[in-house]
Amino acid sequence: MYVVANLYYYKLMLLITRPLPKLQASADAFEQAGIDTIGVATSDIQSIPSKAGKLQQFLLGSPSINIIIVTSIYAVPAALHALNQASFLSAPPTLIAVGDATANALHSANLPLKIVTPSLHTSEGILVMQQLNEANCTQVVIIKGEGGRDKLSHVLGERGISVTEFCVYKREPLTNPIYTKRWKIGDVSGIIATSENLAKQLISTHSRQILALPWLTVSERVATSLRNLGIARVSVCNRATDQALIAWVKENWEY
């Protein structure tokens, strides 16, 4: 018998929402860790080649960029293609990767650039980094998806930093959610949603019964949004990797 937010369940089964490209890998990671898991994808990821081309042109013509922020592993292909073509005449920019998966993907390309990650893998974590709070940080490029990470450009702009954004991919809602296996709401003990967008899509396509379950997300900002949607029990894990989420669940929900 396990304890979940002071309620007893005879079996822990989690619902984790991920974009389609990450769905099976995340579900498999949880299952291999001994956690019964249903993966659900409510959206797919599509690249935007035209925006990737504009990013490449911009980097070719802008040698004085101080920081390039890569906000997701889905932004890495466009970032690498552009960076491999760019030639920085002055000091090369520092790459900020929002999380471990993004940083590892960038490191694998052996770029001659410094790659750093924030202590907290969130927009808020990026904004407090030393590199973005130095006097010589005047030009920043953000490589992101449509409709995401708006706080970054807003806050950096308020600091007087010139910010240029390139939305190189987009989330396409699926007509019907895709699941890794059959399930029913009565089997679910908790829900993991790693972004506000995914959480809202999950709520819109399922019974409001899911609002009564305990939820886990990856930032206080998303947690606040979930509470505003009517979810009372929301916890936060400060990293979005499968390994970090699994460790949090085993420490807080499984035993």
Automatic annotation (TrEMBL):
The keyword Lyase applies. Pathway: Porphyrin-containing compound metabolism; protoporphyrin-IX biosynthesis; coproporphyrinogen-III from 5-aminolevulinate: step 3/4. SUPFAM superfamilies: HemD-like. It is an enzyme of class 4 (lyase). GO terms for molecular function: uroporphyrinogen-III synthase activity. Transmembrane segments: none annotated. It catalyses: hydroxymethylbilane = uroporphyrinogen III + H2O. Residues 27-247 form the Tetrapyrrole biosynthesis uroporphyrinogen III synthase domain. Belongs to the uroporphyrinogen-III synthase family. This is Uroporphyrinogen-III synthase. It comes from Alteromonas naphthalenivorans.
